[in-house]
C-alpha cells in the first residue's frame, strides 16, 4: 500500500518541499471545510489527528537505520484499529440508509393510472348529468302543461290534467339519473385516491428522513475518506522509514501521497444525491397536491349528488302522488314548483364541479408528466427510475 518517492524525470535535483498549507489546501479543502461546518465531524477529525500524531511520533522515536521497533509497529497497528472502529461506531450510530427508491416509479404509475379512472368517472358523471337535465326538461314541460290546462280547461276533471300527467309519467319512467354503477365507480375512485394519498404521505415522510440524513452521511463519507488518507500516509512513512532511515525522507514520503480530488468528489457525490432526493420529493409533492385537490373535488361532488338526489326524490314523490290521485294534481304540482328551481340550479353547480374535477386532474397529470420529462436520464441519475 505504501507509496515510494520517485524522482521526477528531467530534474537533476528534488524540488524544495512545499509548505504544509500548500500541500494540504488543494487536496483537503473540501474535507477541512466540512470539519469547520460540522462540529461532530470536527470532533472526529481532532481525535483522528491525535491518534495519527501518536503513531507518527512512535515511528520517529523508535525507528533506527534498519527496522522499526515492535513498539512502533504496535502503535501503528492500534492506530489503524482505532480509526476503523471509529468509522464502524459512527456508521452504527447513523444507522443504515437506502440510496435510490425505485418504488417512486410505482407511485407515479399508480397516480397516472388513477387519473385515467378519475377522468372516466367524470365522463360517467357527465352522462348522469345529461339524464338529470333530461328529467329537468320533462318536469319543466309538465309545469307548462299544468299551467295551460288549469287555466284553459275547466271541463271534466278526468281530462283536466291529461298532458300534465303524461309528462309526469315520462319523468318517473326516466328514473334516477344516478345509477348503481355510477355510485360504485365513485366509491372506487374515492377509496383509491385516499389510499394513494396515504402512500404518498408515507413515501414523502421516508424521503424527508433521507434528506435529513444527507449531512450525516456526508460526514460519514468524510470520516472514511480521512481515515483512508491518514492510513495511506502512515503506511508510506512506515515503508520510507524501513527503506530510507532519515526522517526527512519519511516526511517527504508523507507529503508525496497523491490524494487528487477525492474530497471534492465525495462532496459532489452527496450533492448529486441530495439533488436527486429533492427532485423525487418535488414529484411526490406534486402528486400529493394533485391527489388532495381531486379528493376535495370528489367530496364536493358527493355532497351535490346527495343534494340532487334528495330533490329528485321529492319531485318523484310529488309526481307519483299526482299520478295516483287525480284530485291531488294541483297540490302535487305546487310542490314541484317549489323544488324545480333548486333542482335546476344544483344540476348546473354539479356540472361546474364535474368540469373543475376534470380540469384539475388533467392539469395535475400535465405537471407530473412535465416533471418526469425534466428528470435527468437514467444514465445521469444512475438508476432507470423513470425510463426503464
From TrEMBL:
The record's section on InterPro entries has:
DUF677
The compartments listed are: Membrane
Give UniProt keywords alphabetically: Membrane, Transmembrane, Transmembrane helix
**Tree of life domain:** Eukaryota
Q: Where mainly located?
A: membrane
Compositionally biased tracts (Polar residues):
1-14
Residue ranges spanning the membrane: these are 220-242, 248-266
Q: Which Pfam families match?
A: DUF677
Q: Where is this region: Disordered?
A: 1-30
Describe the family membership recorded for this protein in Swiss-Prot or TrEMBL: Belongs to the UPF0496 family.
**Record-given protein name:** AT14A
Amino acid at each position: 500500500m505504501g507509496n515510494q518517492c520517485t524522482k521526477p524525470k528531467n530534474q537533476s535535483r528534488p524540488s524544495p518541499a512545499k509548505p504544509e498549507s500548500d500541500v494540504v489546501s488543494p487536496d483537503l479543502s473540501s474535507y477541512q471545510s466540512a470539519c469547520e461546518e460540522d462540529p461532530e465531524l470536527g470532533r472526529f477529525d481532532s481525535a483522528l489527528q491525535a491518534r495519527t500524531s501518536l503513531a507518527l511520533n512512535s515511528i520517529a522515536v523508535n525507528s533506527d537505520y534498519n527496522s522499526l521497533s515492535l513498539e512502533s509497529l504496535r502503535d501503528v497497528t492500534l492506530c489503524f484499529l482505532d480509526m476503523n472502529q471509529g468509522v464502524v461506531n459512527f456508521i452504527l450510530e447513523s444507522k443504515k440508509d437506502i440510496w435510490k427508491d425505485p418504488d417512486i416509479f410505482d407511485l407515479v404509475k399508480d397516480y397516472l393510472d388513477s387519473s385515467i379512472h378519475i377522468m372516466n368517472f367524470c365522463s360517467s358523471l357527465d352522462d348522469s348529468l345529461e339524464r338529470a337535465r333530461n328529467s329537468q326538461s320533462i318536469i319543466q314541460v309538465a309545469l307548462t302543461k299544468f299551467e295551460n290546462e288549469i287555466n284553459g280547461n275547466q271541463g271534466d276533471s278526468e281530462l283536466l290534467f291529461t298532458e300534465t300527467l303524461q309528462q309526469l309519467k315520462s319523468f318517473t319512467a326516466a328514473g334516477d339519473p344516478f345509477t348503481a354503477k355510477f355510485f360504485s365507480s365513485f366509491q372506487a375512485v374515492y377509496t383509491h385516491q385516499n389510499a394513494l394519498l396515504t402512500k404518498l404521505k408515507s413515501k414523502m415522510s421516508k424521503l424527508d428522513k433521507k434528506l435529513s440524513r444527507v449531512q450525516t452521511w456526508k460526514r460519514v463519507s468524510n470520516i472514511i475518506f480521512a481515515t483512508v488518507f491518514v492510513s495511506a500516509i502512515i503506511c508510506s512513512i512506515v515503508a520510507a522509514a524501513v527503506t530510507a532511515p532519515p526522517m526527512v525522507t519519511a516526511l517527504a514520503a508523507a507529503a508525496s501521497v497523491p490524494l487528487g480530488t477525492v474530497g471534492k468528489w465525495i462532496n459532489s457525490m452527496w450533492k448529486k444525491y441530495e439533488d436527486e432526493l429533492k427532485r423525487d420529493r418535488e414529484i411526490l409533492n406534486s402528486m400529493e397536491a394533485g391527489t388532495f385537490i381531486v379528493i376535495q373535488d370528489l367530496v364536493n361532488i358527493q355532497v351535490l349528488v346527495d343534494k340532487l338526489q334528495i330533490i329528485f326524490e321529492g319531485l318523484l314523490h310529488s309526481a307519483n302522488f299526482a299520478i295516483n290521485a287525480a284530485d291531488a294534481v294541483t297540490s302535487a304540482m305546487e310542490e314541484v314548483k317549489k323544488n324545480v328551481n333548486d333542482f335546476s340550479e344544483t344540476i348546473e353547480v354539479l356540472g361546474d364541479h364535474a368540469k373543475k374535477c376534470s380540469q384539475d386532474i388533467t392539469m395535475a397529470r400535465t405537471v407530473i408528466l412535465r416533471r418526469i420529462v425534466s428528470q435527468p436520464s437514467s444514465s445521469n441519475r444512475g438508476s432507470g427510475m423513470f425510463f426503464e
